[in-house]
Write a structure and sequence with these properties.
Its cofactor is Mg(2+). One of its GO terms (molecular function) is phosphatase activity. One of its GO terms (cellular component) is cytoplasm. This is TIGR01457 family HAD-type hydrolase. With 258 residues, this protein is an alpha/beta fold. It folds into two domains: 114 residues, HAD superfamily/HAD-like (Rossmann fold, 3-Layer(aba) Sandwich), CATH 3.40.50.1000; 96 residues, Rossmann fold (3-Layer(aba) Sandwich), CATH 3.40.50. The chain is built from eight helices and 15 strands. The strands form four sheets. A six-stranded parallel beta sheet has the order 5-4-1-13-14-15, sandwiched between helices. α3 packs across α7 and α5 crosses α6. The longest helix is centred in the N-terminal third of the chain and has 12 residues. The N and C termini lie close together (11 Å). Bound molecules: magnesium ion. The site of magnesium ion (MG) has 8 residues, from loops.
Length: 258
């Protein structure tokens, strides 16, 4: 059995499940912290700043992690823009945490249809006018970047459409395919690996969702551990097109392999 030098770990369904705690996951992460093993939480969620997630993990889940343990599709977006569009003026469809991170990284948000780049995430306050201006910006030649294309968000009031529904709207209107930061796409895992400072063959990606967490590993040459505490069900495992490297019922089964 191979030993890994570092880990990338999904949040919802892996570290907790909605508001429910997963004690085996907490013990696993506490063990990583105690032994100073490098890891990062990897999440597509683009509606919270890193520090808000850090506080939630510390206060609600007994996980005294640092901001540096968290890598989101917002941070992937910032890093991608810094590499590819360092001086770009942005049109942003997104919520305040995304806009704050972009401004703190030095980007100008003009909300003008002549912007160089359209950055799209989930915005639960979006309206037709905003979508129309973004459409015009893309048709005018702006690069179309998306944090994540998640389909649905679970809420107390049932399933709501997520970021990908807005992406579908803009794609349909413009016939332009966006570049996506979040899992299963490359930018989020490349950015996280760069910060982790480890070669990809020494890192294990842990997640509950085959389509995102496991696919991001498979498509980017990182070994994967599917944990059956969330989205992907045990009955599906024999039928998955490409098998994860490992499958466990919960993370207590990985404790002796750290
Ligand atoms: Mg998950």
């Amino acid at each position: 059995m191979k030993q890994y030098s570092g880990y990338l770990i999904d949040l919802d369904g892996t570290t907790y499940y909605g508001k429910r705690r997963i004690p085996t996951a907490e013990l696993f992460i506490q063990e990583l912290l105690a032994r100073d093993i490098p890891f990062k939480f990897l999440t597509n969620n683009a509606t919270r700043q890193i520090h808000q997630i850090q506080q939630m993990l510390e206060q609600d889940y007994d996980l005294p992690v640092k901001d540096s343990h968290i890598y989101t599709s917002i941070i992937a977006m910032v890093n991608y823009l810094q590499h590819h569009h360092p001086d770009a003026e942005l049109f942003v469809i997104g919520e305040e945490p995304l806009k704050t991170e972009l401004r703190q990284a030095g980007f100008t948000i003009s909300q003008d249809r002549s912007a160089d780049v359209v950055v799209q995430a989930l915005n639960r306050q979006t309206n037709y006018e905003e979508l129309a201006m973004a459409t015009q910006a893309i048709l005018n030649g702006a690069t179309f970047l998306v944090t994540n294309t998640d389909q649905l968000i679970p809420t107390a009031d049932g399933l709501y459409p997520s970021s990908g529904a807005t992406t579908a709207f803009l794609k349909h209107a413009t016939s332009i395919e966006p570049i996506v930061m979040g899992k299963p796409h490359a930018p989020i895992i490349e950015g996280a690996l760069e910060q982790l400072g480890l070669p990809k063959d020494e890192v294990l990606m842990i997640g509950d969702n085959y389509q995102t967490d496991i696919q991001v590993g498979i498509q980017n040459g990182v070994d994967t551990l599917l944990v059956l505490t969330g989205v992907t069900q045990k009955e599906e495992v024999p039928h998955l097109p490409v098998a994860p490297t490992y499958v466990v019922d919960n993370l207590s089964q990985w404790m002796d392999k750290i």
